[in-house]
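#onboarding

Welcome to the new folks! Below is a worked example of what a typical request in this channel looks like: someone posts a single protein sequence, and someone else replies with the predicted structure as tokens. Don't worry about understanding the tokens yet, we'll cover that in week two.

Example request:
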Amino acid sequence: MLIDTHLHLDAVEFDPDRAEVLARARAAGIEGFVVPAVDREGFARVLALAETTSGVFPALGIHPLNTDRADESDLDALDALLAQNHAVAVGEIGLDHHMPGFDAARQQAFFITQLKLARRHELPVILHVRRAQDAVLAALRRTRVVGGIAHAFNGSFQQAETFIGLGFKLGFGGAMTFDGARRIRRLAAELPLDAIVLETDAPDMPPAWAREERNMPENLLRIAKVLAELRGLSLEEIVRVTSANAHMALALPGSGRLP
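Example response:
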């Protein structure tokens, strides 16, 4: 089965038709949906969605772009929820040095604390990394975790090898479908296949055929076909290997990571 390792199914953009969106995705062969929270308010939404919807797996974390409005009590709440063994990962966490006016020190502090929580609870992490590849890798070397996924990977081959060496899989999605994204397409074509997982980041980061539209989880099937074409492999092989990779990366049912 196909597993979308990163989408925000709890987003308000899906409020009008969430059930229909999921039905179309399942009809396209997507059966697993990893939904990371981005702030404390999202913890309950993501957990409720996972509890009521088959195939939805929650991750809990505070996104780096939300650290400016988070505080220590949010981290305490995260710690308490992780102790209940509901999450398949700590995420979406990381560093974002792209947006103007970011507070690098605050992002770093929240990132390190959440890495320590992941280590305490023996959970993988889902990383947000934008213009901060080396800074994230430095933090991971200092605060080791069991691995996870570097979401929307767009670093260099050397950085990719370092992430892989630290136990991470690399997420590829809509950006890979653009002909002009030569570096990302080369990474997707040449990196070890056992290091790659697939994602949509829906409703964000639409693929080439849906520019300016709401991204949908059903697009994962065509994203998988693009990866198959880039690597000269069958779609069946891409589905088999990337799904196995997702189970290796996250605490999904059947992965052996869950308590």
